[in-house]
Amino acid sequence: MQRDFDDLPVGAAGSLRDSLVALLLRFGEGPTRTQLALAVASLAAHLPAAEWGSGGGGALQWLAARLTGAGADGNAGHSAGATALPCLLELLTVFPQEAGSYRPAVRPDRRRAFARELITASQAAVHLISSCVQHMPENTRNKRGRVLDAYAAWVRLSQGRLNADDPSAAGPREPPQIDPATLAAHPLTALALESLGLHATDEAAFDHAVDAVCELVRATVTATTSGGGSAVDNTGTDAVGVNGGIPPASMPLVQLLVPRVMALRPALTAAAGTDGADDDVAKGIARLFAEVGEAYVDLIATGAPDAIAPVEALLQVTAYPDTDIAAMSFFFWDRLSHVLMGRRGDPSGDTNGGPLEAEAERARRHQLFRPAYVHLIQNIMGRLRYPDGFEHWHREERQDFKRMRYAVADTLTEAAAVVGGAQALQIIAAPLQELLACADAAAPSPSFDWRKVEAALYCVRSISKEPPPPDDPLLASLLASLADLPAHPQLLYTAALTASAYSEWLSGALSCAPNPALLQRLFAVLHRALFHDDTDTRGAAALALKHLCDATAVHLAPFLEPLMQLYTTALTSTSTVAGAKETESSAGTGGGTEGAASSSRVGGP
């Protein structure tokens, strides 16, 4: 079906189709049924709708009539057997998932035509799903989950979104085939919302309901222009209409979905107290909250009273113990920050007044959302600490931890943009100052936890794009305290990159008030890091020295002699290590020590 269809003899497609349907009815359960359904979908991708008969209704109408005796109205008959309806439901699940698929070897124009055929058949397909629900026995295995899977797939397809978009497709996306008002009144929507309440008793059905409700949320932000094309997708870009970019026709569905989703907040609280036992349920709830927040971010940014509930719910997600679940909210916070800061459209563009009114509206929204971002910083800043046993991690585990840190760092940057660099630094530095008070480079205190200090410094480094004013004494004190840190490789690595990140701020601070002692302490910690045994630490120190010298060049005259000594020492060290490597190589050891010559390499951003 997928590769060798063109090798069939002329006229064999019809008999092949009949044998596939017979096999589908024979193997009515299990993975074989799914594979046969995929084969039928591939056959439909090869054969145009006209070749299926049924008055040009296409593959779905032909299959419905063949399997269940459905009439022209698409209703599955009562006489359909116990095997036929589950098979039809399997086909109704597979067909929209295969729209636009590249697995069948068909020409691009036929692939696009097949996708259009399925999109235009969305209403009939959803009607068939409803008919299957009515006539399938209640004790059918996994009936609710399969129905919701099929409904979610057709809701997605009905809005013109394919699972595999064809980059060569020309022209606008297909217009939506099912409007939000129809979805709001549909019994399958009621079934999906009802199934959200099964999180405590039927986790599998709850997961299927999450998929369906997420597709319904995305459907509310799909609008139709006068030309029939899509004017807005689920990113909110180029939004039309009122209510923060949500089309007015979608508001009844929005008002139906959001309260039911927000009603899951107590369930998330309960899951957080089960020591990971309900993480799967919590993941589904967090996904729903994130979907609502991302879809309606423009409406939330208006600061309307009804729009605050998603913000509180997503704050609850950021506080969840599992970091992977908490991270599901990060994209919402980033997008909301972009809207509030005017990076994606004017957040006060809906005011009818002049510039003063727009500025007042912008200030009001900042004031409204600033406490939420303060809580966000407090909730996620403690997630950056190296866990116990990290020294024994595999390379993949280290990469996963780095990716998580980058995601948290990006979110902290966006939060600092809303809160303000000075206030964000105060929040992060509050626990850091207590930890640094126990630091002693010569003899660290037994109670000193380098991992906590390193995580806090990473947070300080993360918000460097939103620095405080040049005369901020707190940041100057934190940078000066770096010289007191013990010589732990990860700690010195982050300390060096923190100094590098604030090199431009340091230049401005020294221009306001010369402070040679601060520069001297920074050069001291970078000197220690530059000659550390760890290669990544040496690389971070070299990068920090470069940035620090570039930014503060006009203030370096008093340090010319020690900097030249450092330069000479580095050259001597490089020559010594290079000679040792050459000696080991000539001796045939095949080993060698990675030295200061590689100090320009940095292990991470």
Brief write-up:
This protein is mainly α.
Verbal overview:
This protein is mainly α and 605 residues long. Among the domains are: 1-175, no CATH class; 420-566. It has helices at 13-26, 31-46, 58-68, 84-98, 108-120, 122-135, 143-158, 180-185, 187-195, 203-219, 251-262, 265-272, 279-295, 297-301, 308-318, 323-326, 330-340, 355-380, 395-419, 421-436, 450-462, 473-480, 489-501, 503-512, 516-530, 535-551, 560-586; strands at residues 223-224, 230-232. A two-stranded antiparallel sheet has the order 1-2. Strand 1 and strand 2 (230-232) form a beta hairpin.
Largest sheet: 2 strands, antiparallel
Strand order of the largest sheet: 1-2
Q: Name the beta content range.
A: under 5%
Rounded mean pLDDT is 83
Helical content (DSSP H or I, runs of 4+): 55-70%
